[in-house]
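As noted in the main text, all predictions were made from sequence alone. Below is one such record, for C-type cytochrome.
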Amino acid sequence: MKTRLLVLLLGIVTTVPLAAADPVAPAALLNRGRYLVEGIGLCADCHSPRNEKGEFVTAHWLRGAPIGFTPAVPMPVWAPVAPPIAGLPSMTAEQAVKFLMEGKRPDGTMPRPPMPAYRLNEEDARAMVAYLKSLGDAPAVAAQP
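Prediction:
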C-alpha cells in the first residue's frame, strides 16, 4: 500500500511541473519576436544601415543607422540616427517590455520621431524583446551626424 501511494505521489509530483510549464517554447517565442520585429514593426527600416544600392547591410542588422529620410516640415526633436537595438544595449529586458507596452523610455520621455510610441500587449512585447536580446550586443555602426 505504501509503495502504491508513493508511486502515485511521485507520478503527480513529476507531471505537475510539465503541466504548469510555459506553453511557449523558447524557439517559438524567438520566432514570434522575429516575425514582429522584421515583418510587422519593420524595425530594420530605421535601425539597420543600407549600402549605396539601398540594400540592408546584413552584417550590421539592427545595429543602428542614420535615418534615411527627413520630415516634410521642420521638426526640432527629429532623431537623425536610430540607435542599435540588437541585444538592446541601452535597456534591460523589463525596461524594453515596458517601453514597447507604454511607449515611454526608461527615463519617462517619449521616443523621438520617427520612432512611434508603441502600445503592444505584453505577450508581443516579450517576444520582441526575447528576439532582440538573442541578437547579442555589438558595437553601433551609426555615428552621430
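The CA atoms of residues 92 and 133 lie 9 Å apart. The longest helix spans residues 2-20. These features were considered when defining construct boundaries for the mutagenesis experiments described in Section 2.9.
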